TrEMBL record:
Keywords: ATP-binding, Ligase, Nucleotide-binding
Protein name: Succinyl-CoA ligase [ADP-forming] subunit alpha
Gene name of the record: sucD_2
Residues in N-acetyltransferase domain copies: 750-905
GO molecular function list: acetate-CoA ligase (ADP-forming) activity; acyltransferase activity, transferring groups other than amino-acyl groups; ATP binding; metal ion binding; succinate-CoA ligase (ADP-forming) activity
Residue span(s) of domain ATP-grasp: 497-533
Coiled-coil residue windows: none
Superkingdom as given in the UniProt entry: Bacteria
Length: 905
């Protein structure tokens, strides 16, 4: 297993230490000591011409003297000498580098220049990988490889720890060793000049020792690759993150309401949620959460049952659960009847299930097993408070016995000290999560709930253009380019609404009046009552300068309002250019609710969308939800439902519910507007009036950034054609540009297009139409029927990494899949695996050949260097197709498979 050559670092067979020295407490000596103490079985090569040996290990004067080429060089010398040392490593054939030295970008301009020199050197040597600089180093406990200057080596475990803070690494190591927490890998990434978090997540995703990842994050680089790697990992294994630097004042400088409401931390939270990452807010929760989630004892929902031998702790657990938006399970009638039959009459007769202080182990077991059979229960917390008649160890044994019989998560809280410790150790050693307080246990359960919720989001990848409505791409581009050519970075309300209308977002028609007489004339044309607002490119928050007057009902009122608005604006903003006023219909609805919808381009994650409680109090209310575009219908609904104002959008105090479908559609249209135009820096619709009939933008302001938005995923120079279309998005939308029409030899029209999550029924129908032999030749194993889990694996795709191209025909007016070709690229887009499936009925019509040729074209657009495919020796049709396209064929007799490979460049 070697992803981007990282085996040279984390599975190094020979290690050189550049800057090795016998000086007490030196970094070079500490690294050698750690390698020896960690039980490293590979060879250690200290490199320093001034010494013959260090720590009884022979020292070499240069790389030329080494008996063989090391996989890894650990560099611990002055920063100024590092570029030259890396160059010498490259000349010696060393491709794995860990730079411990400090003194780079963290110290200023000279350090930045040194980093650029390192990158220049790195480009000379193919496949060289560098961790650091300015890092603590790396540890691979399962290989005894401690290439760091940490004070201790951690035990072997199943958690990979990745940290941007070297100082935190030493503290965590000390704490983890005390708690007997083991690691599969322990990595201090430093300045991430080359190897970043995305590389490590991808590498650990294929590692046999890693069940979960913990991230300590200060900032993210390469957001697109980070999101892609994290979403791939969290589909099967959890990632837990602690984000430092949560609070910032930078949002206060934003020009729009949206910008001010969208802080840095809230964007990270939205990105983590979309990537399936569970976030914790206390460092102490990191390892408890990682160990819990890695047990794969998943919950189906938030409904928790509590079995306790004391009422107070049960109430404590309930309070903690409700505070964290969990749900106290409502026990079924049958469960209550069963509990009544086996519990003393004084039990609580509800959830929490207080089985009383004299509860022996058997009473615990009876109650636990009854509660776990209830379909209304998603998880169980068992609480023990030590009393005179309590048996902590024996009760722990019955909890373990019951937990083994269920797929539902069972957690324990053994409250106390010395008396309960043996029981806690018994459960902990058996893998059952146990905590000292009910609150900690509830917090852990809610992490399980959050992980389950966030995994659901992973299967929501939207199309570029939804099937529910049409967008005229030509018209939209034309309107945008015309507005963009007008010169101002801040579009006026009129121009902003013009762009919204191009995306079929309803707005109130807005007209500009540059004099009092113009205002009266336009008001009559619009029809009373009207709204008047100040018209100035420099004034964004109009109400703050007295620049909004509502419900003007006659010509005199309009004339007076013109003078009042322009005078107040000049007095309060003498620096602003006052061009006049705007007028629009006074839209009122007794059943309407005001929301804010907006977007902002984050410097890390690109464009981010926002919806929240709107109006003049938007920033004060701070009720908002963020998401990365573009949106699917499900994501849009989830955004709306996460608002505290969500209950008020339904039937509320005699008001009918708003038109939710229309609001969802507007959100989706705004997301496509933002996705299609990377020049949009900020967009602010405030208020968006949502009524039972419609959703209408009453005011809008768009701010442009005419600079190149850059590419969110360009650090390592990986040239991917798929990224150039959406450089401002952290998640690649549905690639509608890969749709193409073909015609079969019998004149049947055939559409090739990328598959999408909503195509699951068609994919299942395709598989159902195939014979067992066809399925065996494609998947190399037999299965009786498709499952949702299987379908999501093939219909959900990260469009930056894989493409499933469906061959679609029309049958009785409905689209039908007759074949699918699948490309799965490695993270660097150097090699792609290819496979194809064609329905039995349509074999022999040339569909397999068409899919193969089209996928090879896409490989060239993706700049893939080689393609590989595996097939059964009995699949003669595909063998012939590959032979005619100059694939090299080889037979693996042991695995009974034919391998076809073709170099494209």
């Amino acid at each position: 297993m070697s992803i981007r050559n990282l085996d040279k670092i984390f599975a190094a067979r020979h290690v050189a230490i550049v800057g090795a020295t016998p000086r007490e407490s030196s970094v070079g000596r500490t690294v050698i000591q750690n390698l020896i103490a960690g039980g490293y079985q590979g060879e250690i090569f200290p490199v320093n011409p001034r010494f013959e040996e260090i720590e009884r290990v022979r020292c070499y004067s240069s790389f030329d003297d080494l008996p063989q080429t090391p996989d890894l060089a650990v560099i611990a010398i002055a920063a100024a000498n590092v570029p030259d040392a890396i160059d010498r490593c490259g000349q010696a054939g060393i491709r794995g580098i860990v730079v411990l030295s400090a003194g780079f970008r963290e110290v200023g301009k000279r350090g930045q220049e040194l980093e650029q020199e390192i990158l220049t050197v790195k480009k000379r040597y193919d496949n060289m990988r560098i961790v650091g600089p300015n890092c603590l180093g790396i540890i691979s406990p399962h290989r005894g490889l401690n290439a760091s200057f940490a004070s201790d080596s951690p035990p072997k475990g199943r958690i990979a720890f990745i940290s941007q803070s070297g100082a935190l690494c030493t503290a965590v190591l000390d704490w983890a060793i005390e708690k007997k927490i083991g690691f599969s890998y322990f990595v201090s990434v430093g300045n991430m000049l080359d190897v970043g978090m995305a590389d490590l997540i991808d590498y650990f995703s294929m590692d046999q020792y890693t069940d979960s990842i913990i991230l300590y994050v200060e900032s993210i680089t390469d957001a697109r690759r980070f999101m892609s790697a994290a979403r791939a990992f969290t589909r099967s294994k959890p990632i837990i993150a602690y984000k430092a630097g949560r609070f910032t004042e930078s949002a206060l400088a934003a020009a729009s309401h949206t910008g001010a409401m969208m802080g840095v931390d809230s964007v990270y939270e939205a990105a983590f949620a979309r990537a399936g990452i569970v976030r914790v807010f206390e460092v102490g929760d990191l390892f408890d959460c990682a160990a819990l989630l890695a047990r794969k004892n998943e919950t189906k929902g938030p409904r928790l049952a509590i079995v306790t031998n004391a009422g107070g702790p049960g109430v404590m657990a309930t309070d903690a659960l409700l505070q964290r938006q969990g749900t106290l399970a409502t026990l079924s009638k049958q469960t209550l009847e069963k509990l009544v039959a086996i519990l003393p009459s004084a039990w609580s007769h509800g959830n929490p299930i207080d089985i009383l202080g004299d509860a022996p182990p058997q009473r615990y077991q009876d109650a636990i097993e009854i509660v776990l059979q209830d379909d209304n229960v998603d998880g169980l917390l068992v609480i023990l408070s030590p009393q005179a008649m309590t048996a902590p160890v024996e009760t722990a044994k019955v909890v373990l016995t019951s937990a083994k019989k269920t797929s539902k998560p069972v957690l324990a809280a053994w409250m106390g000290g010395v008396r309960v410790r043996p029981g806690m150790e018994l459960m902990s050693d058996a893998g059952l999560p146990v905590y000292r307080t009910p609150e900690k246990a509830v917090s852990a359960f809610m992490y399980l709930v959050e992980y389950a919720r966030r995994r659901e989001i992973l299967y929501e990848t939207p199309r570029s253009i939804p099937v529910r409505f049409h967008l005229d791409q030509t018209k939209m581009r034309s309107v945008f380019e015309k507005l963009r050519s007008e010169g101002s970075d801040t579009l006026s309300e009129v121009a902003s609404k013009t762009l919204l209308e191009a995306y079929n977002v309803p707005t109130t028609k807005t007209l500009v009046a540059r004099s009092s007489n113009d205002a009266v004339t336009l008001a009559k044309r619009i029809g009373y009552p009207v709204v008047m607002k100040i018209f100035s490119p420099e004034i964004t928050h109009k109400s703050e300068v007295g620049g909004v007057i509502l419900n003007l009902t006659d010509p005199q009122g309009v004339a007076d309002a013109f003078g009042q608005i322009t005078l107040q604006a000049k007095q309060r903003r003498p620096d602003a250019c006052i061009e006049g006023v705007t007028l629009q219909s006074m839209v009122t609805s007794p059943n309407g609710r005001e929301l804010i919808v907006g977007a902002k381009r984050d410097p890390v994650f690109g464009s981010v969308l926002l919806i929240g409680a709107g109006g003049t109090m938007a920033e004060i209310m701070q009720d908002s939800s963020l998401e990365l575009p573009p949106l699917s219908e499900t994501l849009a609904r989830r955004m709306i439902q996460s608002l505290r104002a969500w209950p008020m959008l339904g039937e509320f105090r005699g008001k009918p519910a708003v038109h939710l479908d229309r609001l969802v559609e507007v959100l989706m249209r705004i997301s496509y507007l933002v996705a299609n135009h990377p020049q949009i820096k900020e967009l602010d619709i405030n208020p968006l009036l949502v009524t039972p009939e419609d959703a209408v933008a009453l005011d809008c302001r768009i701010i442009l950034d005419r600079r190149d938005p850059g590419n969110l995923d360009s650090r390592n120079g990986s040239a991917r054609e798929s990224q150039s279309l959406y450089p401002h998005l952290a998640i690649r939308p549905y690639p509608s540009e890969f749709r193409e029409q073909f015609t079969l030899s019998d004149h049947t029209p055939l559409l090739l297009r990328p598959i999408a999550p909503e195509d699951e029924p068609q994919w299942c129908d395709l598989v159902a139409s195939c014979s067992p032999e066809t399925l065996r030749m494609r998947f190399r194993y037999m299965f009786k029927a498709t499952t949702h889990e299987m379908a999501t694996r093939f219909c959900f795709t990260d469009y930056d990494r894989e493409l499933a191209i469906a061959a679609e025909i029309q049958h009785e007016g409905k689209p039908v899949f007759v074949g699918v070709g699948r490309l799965v690229a490695d993270v660097d887009h150097r090699e792609a695996e290819f496979a194809v499936l064609v329905s039995d009925k349509w074999q022999g019509h040339g569909i397999g050949a068409i899919l193969t040729d089209y996928c090879l074209q896409l490989c060239k657009r993706w700049k893939i260097q080689s393609v590989v495919a595996e097939m059964s020796p009995a699949n003669q049709r595909m063998i012939d197709i590959f032979s005619h396209r100059d694939f090299k064929l080889s037979r693996n007799i042991a695995e009974d498979v034919v391998i076809a490979r073709k170099k494209l460049v």
